[in-house]
Amino acid sequence: MSTTAAANAPPVLTIDGPGGAGKGTISRLIAERLGWHLLDSGALYRLTALAAAKHEVALDDEAALVDVAVALDVAFLAEEGATRVLLEGSDATHTIRTEQIGDAASRVAALPAVRRALLQRQRDFRQAPGLVADGRDMGTVVFTDAPLKIFLTASAEERAHRRHLQLQKSGVDASLSSLLKEIQARDARDMQRSVAPLKPADDAITLDTTRLTIPEVVDRLTELLTERGLATGT
Ligand code: C5P
Fold this sequence. Notes:
Blueprint: E1 12-16, H1 23-34, E2 37-40, H2 41-54, H3 62-71, E3 74-79, E4 82-87, E5 90-91, H4 99-108, H5 112-123, E6 131-135, H6 138-142, E7 148-153, H7 156-169, H8 176-192, E8 205-208, H9 214-227
Cytidine-5'-monophosphate is lined by residues 19, 41-42, 45-46, 102, 105-106, 109, 135-137, 186, 190.
């Protein structure tokens, strides 16, 4: 599949990888540093899952889920250090982050017709001066011509540990072992699905963040962007 992007299309940095590898935080920091737009594609799958629950659409009803995805009424409002997410005018910023919605999102995301329904919506985020695209298939399907593709990963244990800390900070009590199991189940579903499975693009650079701090990852990505002439002046 090609992205049919014009030769002078704005640049895209794709950041793919499993959940909890730091994609969200890193993508935001890089987008802020470059002054580029940000696409959180996982949020679109989460919002589809949430809208389905709201409209009582079953997670195995592919045709009805496509209708939900096509009609998805969402807004991403950039605020300092965060993005406020609205679904049908109501704040869904925190609701979409629960493990339950994450799990439902990965089921919805395994349906080819739902992925097709969300494709153009994602490509529309590609606007000047550039885009940081965070997801699972940004480099392999959505923006195949991106000038820099990163596959960000970390061990499942480290990712469970990070998610645990994140939940604790927001006052949610969750067991580390059940988080690890959920992460492993979600990884398996994302990697084994037939359409757009989670894997690095052939031309992606893999960065294992297990032993790296956030500033170290941001610095490494800034070096790569500079090497490719994408981050002059940062
Ligand atoms: O990244 P996040 O955890 O928000 O994504 C939620 C789910 O959406 C993932 O587990 C994955 O199944 C799906 N997803 C996807 N393709 C993307 C982004 C997310 O299939 N580009």
